[in-house]
Amino acid sequence: MSRRCNRLRPHPLPVAIALAGAVSTAPLWAGDLPEVSVEEAQWPLSVSHAAKGTDVDAADSAEALKTLPGAAANRNGGLTALVQYRGLSGDRINLSIDGASVVTGGPNAMDSPLSYIPASLLQKLAVNRGPASVSKGQETYGGHIEAGSSRGEFGEGSDLELNARLHTNYTSHNEGSHSSLQVTGANQNHKLGISTSFDHADNSEFGDGDLNATAYERRRHDVFYGYARGDTQANFRVGKNNTAEAGTPALPMDISAIDSDLASFNVSTRLGDLKLHWSSSYSHVFHAMDNFGQRPQPMMGPRETLASGQQTAHRLQLSLPLENGELRFGLDRSESRHDADVYNPMMAMFRIENFNDAERNIDGLFAEWQQQSGHWSWELGARINRVEMDAAEVSAFMGMGQMGMMNMTMMTNMAGMLATAFNGADRSETYNNRDLVFKLGYRIDPQLSLNASLSSKQRAPSYQERYLWLPMQATGGLADGHTYIGNLDLDSETADEINLGIDLRTDSGYASLQVFYRDVEDYIQGTPYAASGNMMIDNAVGMFANMMGGGNPPLQYNNVDAELYGGELSYGVNISDQWSVSGQLSYVRGKRADVSDDLYRIAPLNHRLSLNYHQDQWRVQLINELYGEQDKVSTYNSEAETGGYGLVHLRLRYDVNESLQLRAGVDNLADKSYQDHLAGYNRVMGNEDVAVGERMYGTGRSVNLGLTYHW
């Protein structure tokens, strides 16, 4: 494996203009047909709430989640945001892109799943409210999110039609430019296209200073083909996602390079009354990161990590239509493997095998029945997942003799003891998990409906939670500053959830209220490391934790009990033919059920209100975001409280004609300095505006400009 990757060269796309409008909660009946739709969807009764707007004023598609009730983003960098839904995030959220799963290459999720679909190419982002159906994915107890990119459309006849879309944005707070170009040739049976995008930004600014190590550069290229005839449709896509230097100030290292190869194929057809759907996907990621290229080198010395991730996934679903319903059944398999090695560029012999051939394979089998009868509708689903995990032996060599204040020989010996203990343990494990889902809906009248759902779902541990043998911060993006050590004896998490909802829709407005309670048995969380009884092993854990965790005590992954509860209200009212108001209110509480403590990194109470104006070719929005203080914080994670704040944004859009759209706007009009509770803590030394260990600030006032042109 190469120790270095070539840096990206400038992209030829024009990047002079940029976007204004972040995705808004425009009402469904306003006649707005945007480029990007952000949707909440729930079954039964076809009840749905949608938030739509023209685009996202950032490179990262995860920004769109902020406009959805219950959803948020844990941000560790400009391109590194983990999806949070109803208080859960990371591997607990099931996410698919264009119907395919995507593996993250690094052990700290720097290449978070949504970073593989640039916002300028995003067409759809759908979040299933409440428990996800068992047919949606293998492990979905934290929710399921479907992201889709633009793939063009089939033509109307046999003649070839050529279409293109140019989209370009500019954001002033980081001198960011985000551009994409898509060209498609299609007729009624065939569709062939290419798309390319380029994102670049300097360090961001906030009201009182600079946010160091927040610059980024990324490009994405895809070739896609579609075939449609009668009841048969097939799609094939190959892509390459390359990220050059990209800062992640909330993590110990920054991205120096990410090189990802992606491919997916799916086909749907009909055999008599039986509908068949097959999909396959492949992803391979090479990921390089370091702690010296974009930030001052820490006292511990330079470190570079080279990591890789690979995944293949297959899924077969058969659907049998019933009278007023449908029966679905199918099977799926995913195979993933991860490796990560840590180096010291100044010492040729320094090497730590952080993860070596860590495997996580899942075989799933599911069945699902949906039915409607009069005013009632229901869904019943069951799934079995067999999760097989294993990892190869590890080793560490950190040099010999003295180096500064460190005795390298002693460090090598202590790391060797931990490696020997890990290698001598039984690292293979098989988890036999099950998911059960029941949904029930009742339509009182055409305007008012009630719905309820019950679910019991399980998730096996991640490879980090089992196989992190040396105290490190390779924790899937937790970004709490603690070092963690894995646990080979972890049980699967079991989440039991109840969800209740009421939906009202009239000609003049809508309101949708959802409340939930989720009890999680064997929730996996870091707890204070308990002495093993082997003094040498315990001393080694303490020494490495102190060296790599800045003095914070080490944590070990363990099974605990937790509960989460809360709800979301979304609403909209037409004031006149031109004016409307829409908004959403979200609250979630997460806490330990076995001890008196709160869960880590939970979004605070928040409300988003939008005043919308629509007249002929003009769209104007004035948006107010309010976030409450968050004083329900995790003691074990040394989490700091945050205060409340409010922001105001302005969005303008002018449709020149059917081909050209112009956008402008200002985010954070008052240039307010604020700290988002879901932002991590600064790990970059040398910033006079944000101290090390201080929570990162949100960006300041930003002028946004953009256009989209179709031809």
Distance between the termini: 44 Å
Number of domains: 1
**What is the strand content?**
over 45%
CATH topology assignment: Maltoporin, Chain A
- Rg: 25 Å
Helical fraction equals under 10%
User: What is the multimeric organization of the chains shown?
Assistant: single chain
Largest sheet report: 22 strands, antiparallel, barrel
**Average pLDDT value?**
89
CATH class: Mainly Beta
Tally of strands: 36
**Quick one: overall form?**
globular
**Spans of at least 5 consecutive residues with low confidence:** 1-37, 41-55
Class inferred from helices and paired strands: mainly beta
Work out the helix count: 3
Structural summary, described in words:
This protein is mainly beta and 711 residues long. The chain has a single domain (28-710), classed as Beta Barrel (Maltoporin, Chain A). The protein is built from three helices and 36 strands. It has a 22-stranded antiparallel barrel. Helix 1 packs across helix 3 (535-548). 51% of the residues are buried. Mean pLDDT is 89; it is low at 1-37 and 41-55.
